[in-house]
Amino acid sequence: MTLDATRLLAIRHGETAWNVDTRIQGHLDVGLNAHGRWQAQRVAASLAQRDALHHIYSSDLSRAHDTAQAIALATGAPVTLTPGLRERHFGLFQGKTFAEIEATWPHEAKRWKQRDPEWLPEGGESLVMVQARLQLVLDELAQRHAGEQIALVAHGGVMDVLYRMATGQSLQAPRTWALTNTAVNRLLWTPQGLSLVGWADVSHLDDIGRDETTV
User: What is this structure's pTM?
Assistant: First the structure.
């Protein structure tokens, strides 16, 4: 590994009740459920055994922050809240289930399902906007920790965009990769770009968590 490379562990938060209900969270602050807290403890214990972390950066939404805090307690790495790591803002869709969205806004739901990169729900963000936001945050944090390993604790939509950035897949490409709660996703950042090292490691869990794309 070159001195200017940064190793990244991108980790989705633990499960919430709204994950179970397939209800869109976006920027709404929904906490972990009991299973999500268990998942956070499991991933924290696993990382403490096998990974040296210099720093943890977390979305400031509590489902991510509480997951990051569990990791910090186990590993001793400090946590910095980073609003730029928040989930995609879903505007009017936030608080609604997938079924409610399809029933209330069928045309908008179709564009969402088609992954139109320029489309945005009223009051929310487009995929292009999310990718641009994450690129800025990623470059800033990775440059700050050149030669080190850091954790990014965030959301399903964030993990999805990071995977696409690392593999060169478009924002519109159908998703064929998992976005499991507390999965450990390993990436390598260099000034030339982001590359994939390993994805969706859930060896710390006894069962497979839920896999919504945007929560």
Answer: 0.94
Is residue 41 in a domain? yes
- Nearest in space to 14 (alpha carbons), one of 132, 174, 154, 117: 154
User: DSSP code of 28?
Assistant: S
Closest CA to 131 of 158, 154, 168: 158
User: For 74-124, what is each residue's pLDDT tens digit?
Assistant: 999 999 999 999 999 999 999 999 999 999 999 999 999 999 999 999 999
Q: Quick check: is 124 in a domain? A: yes
Residue with tokens 């179970």, as numbered in its chain: 20
Does 202 map to a domain?
A: no
Catalytic residues: 13, 87
CATH of the domain at 89: 3.40.50.1240
